[in-house]
Amino acid sequence: MIKMKKVAVIGLGYVGLPLAVEFAKKRDVLGFDINAKRVQELRDGIDFTLEVSAEELKEASYLNYSSIVEDLKEAQIYIVTVPTPIDDNNAPDLTPLQKASQMLGCVISNGDIVIFESTVYPGATEEVCIPILEKTSGLKFNQDFYAGYSPERINPGDKVNRLPTIMKITSGSTPEIAEEVDQLYKEIVTAGTHKASSIKVAEAAKVIENTQRDLNIAIINEFAKIFNRLHIDTEEVLKAAGTKWNFLPFKPGLVGGHCISVDPYYLTHKAQEVGYRPEVILAGRRINDGMGEYVATQLVKKLSSQKIHIDEARVLVLGFTFKGDCPDVRNTKIIDIVKELKDFNMSVDVFDDWADPEEVKHEYGIELISKIPKGSYDGIVLAVDHSELKEMGSAAIREYGKAKHVLYDVKHVLPKDESDIRL
Fold first, then answer.
1. What Rg, from alpha-carbon coordinates, does the chain have?
2. Tens digits of per-residue pLDDT, 144-199?
3. What mean pLDDT do residues 199-223 have?
4. Which of 43, 84, 120, 296 could be stapled to 340 by a disulfide with Cβ–Cβ 3.0 to 4.6 Å?
5. φ and ψ at 132, to 5 degrees?
6. Under DSSP, is residue 246 helix (H, G, I), strand (E, B) or coil?
7. From edge to edge, which strands make up the β-sheet containing 113-116?
8. Handedness of CA 18, 260, 315, 220 (dihedral sign)
9. Positions of E strands within 92-210
């Protein structure tokens, strides 16, 4: 049994908070976030991500919160869970990770371990983060301090597959540290751990998990485009093909969020850096990145076929988060549908009770509507499969439309015959 060192979790978002709460059932934990408002909300028992309930926060009796850097000096193990987004050119943006490393360089001491969970390309921990930690702290890597990498596998909004029930990949900068990191995570992960042979292997494993999923969805999206031209229902085709034991059960759709639509670009960036031009991965990204535009174009064509005037038509988009029953709007691809429809000079209203209106306004410049006027819309896009929308059914949803309107079911929420067009 390892010594019960104090853990500090850096970044209390969708990944960091569940981690801090689970560790706080076993040992002292400091949950750190630079957002003082976030820290206060958690002290008040409120988690806007909805990943952790108020009851679970209350039960985490060994968990304290802070936004004061000096407080981090109390810990001996630091787990970094900051975002790793991409920039406007689809290149990795390691700024949050670099800033976190610089901050930790000011507080770490001899013998401390810094574990990174943020998704990166293979080599980033040792090539980017470690030099910053060394320079800022004045300590020597693998002599005075150590590192680990254990990629996050959080699925926002999933109440079944949660942190303790998802196997965890672990790694460390020396064999001894790898074992200590592995034992640390075994305290909270009942599904078990897989100790990778190196930090680079763990980094690579994480980045290909979502890249593989991205490519699987891309081929289904391409199938959908083909079947739409052939006037064949994609869902029926997938159900038929799915009767074979080794056919993978993927569905067409928009690929957004902070993982699947981002991680492949980390891998392709590193591949090109070492002189390899990836073709299949980038082809999949092009297909998936273009699905918002495709959905909007399909709606326009259907409206036109119904003799509904496109210019200044009113469209209602139901749902804005990147997935159903989840408040996360990071990198949502619904915005692509909205922008494209507006380019056709349409008036677009967006409704989503799950999304934070202030965040949507700040990040995307869109004012969510709070009430939906009935009988007002030429087109209705059922864009996200929230439970409430599923329960409404087509009759209730169509009440928002004019006497003549088009209902587009992007997520196959409704039975086949209850919408006018499906992806």
1. 23
2. 999 999 999 988 888 888 999 999 999 999 999 999 999 999 999 999 999 999 99
3. 97
4. 296
5. -65, -45
6. coil
7. 63-66, 29-32, 7-10, 77-80, 113-116, 146-149
8. negative
9. 113-116, 146-149, 168-170, 193-195
How many angstroms separate the CA atoms of 195 and 186, rounded? Answer: 11
Active site residue 326: no
55: tokens are 């009851």
Residue 3 banded pLDDT, cuts 50, 70, 90: low
* pLDDT tens digit sequence for 114-126: 999 999 999 999 9
Helix 334-343 to helix 291-305 angle (10° resolution) is 50
Structural contact between residues 354 and 386, judged by C-beta atoms closer than 8 angstroms? yes
The C-alpha torsion from 210 through 216 and 217 to 220, rounded to 10°, is 180
C-alpha 55/C-alpha 45 separation (Å) is 8
CB burial of residue 93 (10 Å; 0-12, 13-18, 19+): middle
Number of H helices, E strands in the chain: 15, 13
Q: What is the pLDDT of residues 278-314, one digit of tens each?
A: 999 999 999 999 999 999 999 999 999 999 999 989 9
Residues in the chain: 423
pLDDT per residue as tens digits for the range 58-114 = 888 899 999 999 999 999 999 999 999 999 899 999 999 999 999 999 999 999 999
Residues 15 and 83: their CA atoms lie apart, in Å, by 9
Q: In what order do the strands lie in the sheet with 421-422?
A: 347-351, 314-318, 377-382, 401-409, 421-422
**Dihedral sign, Cα of residue 314, residue 318, residue 323, residue 328:** positive
